[in-house]
Amino acid sequence: MSFSGQHVLVTGGAGFIGSHVVDRLLAVGARVTVFDNFSTGFREFVPPRDRLRVIEGDLLDTAAITRAAEGVTFVFHLAANADIKDNLKEPRKCVDQNIVATQNVLEAMRAHGVRDIAFASTGSVYGDATVVPTPEDAPFPVQTSIYATSKVAAEGLLSSYALGFAFRTWIFRFVSLLGPRYTHGHVIDFYRKLARDPSRLDVLGDGTQQKSYLHVSDCVSAMWCAIERAQAPINILNLGHQEWIAVRESIAIITRTLGVTPKLVYSGGDRGWVGDSPRILLDTTRLRGLGWAPTKTIEASVIDTLRFLQNSPYVERRFGAA
Amino acid sequence: MSFSGQHVLVTGGAGFIGSHVVDRLLAVGARVTVFDNFSTGFREFVPPRDRLRVIEGDLLDTAAITRAAEGVTFVFHLAANADIKDNLKEPRKCVDQNIVATQNVLEAMRAHGVRDIAFASTGSVYGDATVVPTPEDAPFPVQTSIYATSKVAAEGLLSSYALGFAFRTWIFRFVSLLGPRYTHGHVIDFYRKLARDPSRLDVLGDGTQQKSYLHVSDCVSAMWCAIERAQAPINILNLGHQEWIAVRESIAIITRTLGVTPKLVYSGGDRGWVGDSPRILLDTTRLRGLGWAPTKTIEASVIDTLRFLQNSPYVERRFGAA
């Protein structure tokens, strides 16, 4: 599969991962339609370029997404409510924005005969994994968050449409990503807290939570590799680094990079929040079998993320008040 | 746990399983509120009795279900769109009626501080199971139907609410049920076809599909056993028979019982429809460990189902035209 000459719809195309996908698609000669409600996306991430159309719209508006899918040949469905930490505050949000919205995308595709879709799922679907590193066919997990539940449901819709309507689907279960345009997660939380008060850092959990991270550029190259080389109707692939680091190590990298020495205050407990999975490391044998490997260490990815945040005051202007 | 003196809400209480649950609850002294939209439920299944209130309402009407949950102490959430065979004809139905509706029930419970819920899921969540008999922690399945996807999502909502809002949940993954008040599935399909033309029977698939079935009375006693004896926040339990039979055997029982000798015409293929799981046999070790065992053979259950259909012309009056 080559994207040159294709017309690719990227939902969430103004977001962190989405905008990197857009850059890569434009670079290889595709036409791109971005569909984004800009709730967490940034205009700065999708500056005007040739062969790029940017639509501001919401996936719950079925007419709008159906119009946007006209003439499209491939879809990256990356729009989502990614707020795993706070999903209990508004329990309906993940169901609407991740399940109903995904079905709206699939139905829009069906309306125009579009059948190829890549989707951003999450390693959180494994819940409190009993097998670590966790392979794609790990024991059937008990879901621990509405967020992960909504992603499992979206995955199931994709595979059902693959079987029922001859779709071809690439389902990527991501670890947390880092790198330029990162605007959500523990690195920005710590960065922001330390900007306000470099002498003290409050940390959720006991700091032993151990997770894997991946640089967004490695993520995009992994998706490209899989879409080119995995051609089954349903391709489910873990996407992550073979490394993982504890929250305490992550804090050490961040404070060293920022040149601060805060007092660390842990809230305690083995996890950051209800539904948090304290150990996330994915078995990426399947993806590596296709010839992909990450190129950046987690430490380099954390540092790259901090450099981005330091050089992008508009991110802090939007989110800093939160 | 005893239901005596409790006020139990049964969604789908006018349906096949629901009405048997209602009978049992009334027999042990509970007050019961049935909430049913009567799309597939029958007034005949819930005749007026003491301590019984029947509300005709739809679970997508959040105000109605929230009112119905007032004063309730336990919920059986059994209402669902169970049309696995035709879920591709109206792809949005399962998402609305099984996912959004389930969240509406959970939110109605939360509004009134109700925290105990038993839920009817399905063995179909295992997709094309790679391990048979299939245990609850079988390898993470790829979903093959929108119906099963919607049940997986509803399960995840329950377990997320258990962790996030201190709910206690019993999630039952059923095989297909048989017995009195059965109104949906292959036995009624064959019964109806043979009533129209006893000389010929068209069968989906090649007749080798092999599935397990359970009598509804054994199902109800299994749920009672689990609710009494399994007290974790999240209890996920397969519910089925150790026997299974091929479609061909099922047809032999049906034709023998009805005294007909049709010519059998198979549509061919290894499954009945897109997304059908051709082999369903659940490992019920977990439930048996609680002291439950089925009392009726599958053959006896098929025959009991046919007797019900023969004695209940009102079922045929409603569904016969389909």
Shape of chain A: globular
Radius of gyration of chain A: 19 Å
Distance between the termini of chain A: 42 Å
Order of adjacent strands in the largest pleated sheet of chain A: 3-2-1-4-5-6-11
Give the CATH architecture of the largest domain in chain A. 3-Layer(aba) Sandwich
Strand elements of chain A, count: 14
Q: How are helices and strands ordered from N to C of chain A?
A: EHEEHEHEHEEHEEEHEEHEEHHH
| CATH fold topology of the largest domain in chain A | Rossmann fold
Largest sheet descriptor of chain A: 7 strands, parallel
CATH class of the largest domain in chain A: Alpha Beta
Oligomer state of the chains in this structure: homodimer
Secondary structure class of chain A reads: alpha/beta
The most extensive interface between chains reads: A-B, 41 and 42 residues
Quick one: CATH superfamily of the largest domain in chain A?
NAD(P)-binding Rossmann-like Domain
What can you tell me about this protein's structure?
The structure is a homodimer of 322-residue chains. The first copy, chain A, has helices at residues 16-27, 62-68, 91-112, 146-165, 186-196, 216-229, 247-258, 285-288, 298-311, 313-319, and strands spanning 7-11, 31-36, 52-56, 74-77, 116-122, 168-174, 176-178, 200-203, 210-211, 213-215, 234-239, 245-246, 263-266, 279-280. The first copy, chain A, is an alpha/beta fold. In chain A, strands 3-2-1-4-5-6-11 form a seven-stranded parallel sheet, sandwiched between helices. In chain A, helix 1 (16-27) links the parallel strand 1 and strand 2. Chain A folds into two domains: 7-177 and 215-239, Rossmann fold (3-Layer(aba) Sandwich), CATH 3.40.50; 179-212 and 243-277 and 291-319, UDP-galactose 4-epimerase, domain 1, CATH 3.90.25. Chain A binds chain B through residues 88, 91-92, 95, 99-100, 103, 106-107, 125-126, 130, 136-146, 148-150, 152-153, 155-157, 159-161, 163-165, 234, 236, 274-275, and chain B through 87-88, 91-92, 95, 99-100, 103, 106-107, 125-126, 130, 136-146, 148-150, 152-153, 155-157, 159-161, 163-165, 234, 236, 274-275.
